[in-house]
Design brief:
alpha+beta, three-stranded mixed β-sheet, 33% helix
Length: 90
């Protein structure tokens, strides 16, 4: 099992400005939904954005995290979507 704080910490090590909203989808701490907002995504394709997140999670994606439903946004996109200050559910 991996905790939301561990996931958030790994992402924020790679992208210190990241706002990370996590939800444990099954209660087993291995299937997660994540919304990640970071300026690091600016000018990158959606695939490149997701690759940044996956890279930050490293081996956890091969072990403790079995599934990750991921949404990435820049701060401007998050503000437009009304997600700029979404509290974490975990």
């Amino acid at each position: 099992m991996i905790t939301a704080d561990e996931i958030r910490g790994l992402i924020q090590q790679a992208m210190p400005d990241a706002q990370v909203d996590l939800e444990d989808l099954t209660g087993g701490a291995d299937h997660w939904r994540a919304v990640v907002v970071s300026q690091a995504f600016d000018g990158r394709s959606r695939i490149e954005q997701h690759q940044l997140v996956y890279a930050s999670l490293g081996d956890e994606m091969k072990g403790r995290i079995h599934a990750l439903q991921l949404k990435t946004l820049t701060p401007a996109q998050a503000a437009q979507a009304g997600l700029a200050s979404t509290p974490s559910k975990e």
